[in-house]
Amino acid sequence: MSKFRFQTWHFIILFFVMIAATSVIAWTGLRDTSDLEKTQILQLNRETFNEKIQSGTHFILIRNAESDLCDKMEANLNLLAKGNNNDINFYKIDAIECHKECVKYEVSAIPTVLVLNNGEISDRIMGVVPVRNLELIYNRNAK
What we know:
The chain is of the alpha/beta class. The chain has one domain: Glutaredoxin, CATH 3.40.30. It is 43% helix and 20% strand. The chain has five helices and five strands. The chain has a five-stranded mixed sheet with strand order 1-3-2-4-5, covered by helices on one side. β2 (57-63), α3 (68-82) and β3 form a beta-alpha-beta unit. α3 crosses α5. It starts with 7 loop residues before the first helix and ends with a helix. The model has no long low-confidence stretch (mean pLDDT 84).
């Protein structure tokens, strides 16, 4: 009876299988944005942005319409907005259309969520953040 020994090519195949499995799992998680058709997040444009943020607390998603990461973050914010009792407003703006606002608020990446209280930044969230973490930030700003 011969002993089995791992060869270099076994590790190479295992490496590529792990990369493929990770990619499939990540892609499946990113594409789960089915709630976006029933969104609770109001789209703002350049004209409506400044008048909406003057008073109150707002979560503003700065996004690119063609980004899967932005879609995932919007889906997470949408879940948060569904439990909102209307004391905080949820908006989204297109980073390209509202580039002057992005420069004003020093947005350096998308997706970015700005939490504004009476027009001033109280929190900044960059990247895709899980709903549990968004709930913590929401509760901190809902005071």
